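Project outcomes to date are best conveyed with an example. Our students and postdoctoral researchers have been running inverse folding experiments weekly, and each run begins with a structure described purely in tokens. The record below, which covers 450 residues, was selected by the lab manager from last quarter's runs and is presented without edits.
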């Protein structure tokens, strides 16, 4: 077979494929990897830019039409996703009027074969069985499902071990491997394989940098027809620069550094019933909704964590104003008392308490006393919770009360996270940002103003 189609996606879609500049570039890179024995290619590309359809659905069909005796392997983060795109690829393969057809007894979503020659499409999720199968071309497509997995050293070790101990051993002599992913973490699978060496790396940031592989000028969008510069900047503001740099710019930032920067700290003064700001702006406290977040601790010992209750005001623009922090080392028997004192002082519409270990007792006792306690579920790591607060700080959406007695301790703890001795105040701020994001609503006044 003599490969002669620089844009294989056009061939398998009867010309219906949209040849955006970046799509053409990706298609050519994928086709080159398919045509070159022993290729090892890493393609770093932002989400929602058509990489899976280009490389798996169209690429797999084209590969098996032209090499019907070979095996195309597709590895996704879950088996269900792998099955989904395996079926889409099979439908495209069946629609093509030329070349070898589908084996009569092979119509499974997961694995299907070409007629008579022993080739076919194999799909699996990360960790899935591949024993007894040899691959001629393998595409690993976004093996990380979400940020929680990306930040988990256990999951990163598992994914790397699955590649080195299982997938790599199933390659036929001269077989090629393509890893396509958005970057999440400097130590993700792409990061580890790059350190191992022997890979051609193609990096396509959403906003162009110097020496762009597509020849874009600095700051130009990768696919303006889908996501123009304005849309990408809006995404950056919404998710924060660190996450955007990783997922959209393919430039993951080392997590050992400070997440909260002191230059992001902004201030207000509290004057009885109003908040005043250095630029002269004033906000009535009665026009804000007030809530509290609580990180409970268990004992008064010197080495124990602090019991912390943060009080926040939220305005109609979703900005947060840190009114107060009650921080003490207290036995669990005193937690309800502290919550009662902070409630009486600030009259919050809700007191959100972390629902684990020592917080369970605090919630039960506070409810008995009729306090407006609600449960906070610790459904992600402290670092992932802090990501939301980082975005608020970076976008000037959190303010500290100037000259508050607790301010120095707070502003000492924030820049040290996640490597500091304490993180309890970071936790209450993180929870506040999460709640503020979740509770933002168009009928805000009717639901939340007292």
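After processing, the design step wrote out the following sequence:
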């Amino acid at each position: 077979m003599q490969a002669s189609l620089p844009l294989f996606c056009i061939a398998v879609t009867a010309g219906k494929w949209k040849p955006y500049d970046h799509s053409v570039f990706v298609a050519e890179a994928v086709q080159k990897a398919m045509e070159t024995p022993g290729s090892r290619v890493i393609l770093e590309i932002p989400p929602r830019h058509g990489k899976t359809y280009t490389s798996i659905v169209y690429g797999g069909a084209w590969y098996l039409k032209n090499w019907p005796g070979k095996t195309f392997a597709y590895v996704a983060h879950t088996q269900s996703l792998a099955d989904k795109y395996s079926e889409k690829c099979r439908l495209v393969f069946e629609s093509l009027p030329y070349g070898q057809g589908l084996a009569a007894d092979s119509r499974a979503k997961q694995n299907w074969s070409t007629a008579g020659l022993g080739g076919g499409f194999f799909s699996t999720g990360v960790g899935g069985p591949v024993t007894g199968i040899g691959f001629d071309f393998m595409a690993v497509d976004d093996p990380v499902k979400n940020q929680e997995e990306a930040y988990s050293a256990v999951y990163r070790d598992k994914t790397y071990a699955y590649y080195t101990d299982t997938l790599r051993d199933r390659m036929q002599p001269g077989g090629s491997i393509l890893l396509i992913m958005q970057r999440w973490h400097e130590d993700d699978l792409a990061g580890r394989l790059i350190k191992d060496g022997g890979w051609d790396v193609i990096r396509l940031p959403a906003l162009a940098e110097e020496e762009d592989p597509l020849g874009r000028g600095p700051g130009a969008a990768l696919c303006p027809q889908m996501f123009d510069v304005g849309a990408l900047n809006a995404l950056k503001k919404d998710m924060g620069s660190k996450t955007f740099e990783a997922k959209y710019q393919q430039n993951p930032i080392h997590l050992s550094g400070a997440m909260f920067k002191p230059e992001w700290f902004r201030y207000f003064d509290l004057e009885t019933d109003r908040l005043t700001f250095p630029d002269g702006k004033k906000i009535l406290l009665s026009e804000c909704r007030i809530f509290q977040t609580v990180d409970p601790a268990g004992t008064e010992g010197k080495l124990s964590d602090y019991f912390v209750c943060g009080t926040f005001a939220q305005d109609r623009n979703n900005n947060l104003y840190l009114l107060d922090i009650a921080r003490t080392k207290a036995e669990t028997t005193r937690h309800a008392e502290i919550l009662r004192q902070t409630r009486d002082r600030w009259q919050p519409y809700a007191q959100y308490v972390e629902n684990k270990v020592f917080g369970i007792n605090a919630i039960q006792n506070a409810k008995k006393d009729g306090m407006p306690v609600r449960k906070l579920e610790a459904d992600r790591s402290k670092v992932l919770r802090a990501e939301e607060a980082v975005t608020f700080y970076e976008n000037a959406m959190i303010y500290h009360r100037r000259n508050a007695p607790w301010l120095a301790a707070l502003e000492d703890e924030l820049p040290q996270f996640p490597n500091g001795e304490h993180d309890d105040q970071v936790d209450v701020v993180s929870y506040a940002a999460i709640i503020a994001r979740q509770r933002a609503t168009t009928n805000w006044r009717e639901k939340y103003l007292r």
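The chain has a mean pLDDT of 86. The two ends are 74 Å apart (CA to CA). The training component of this project remains on track.
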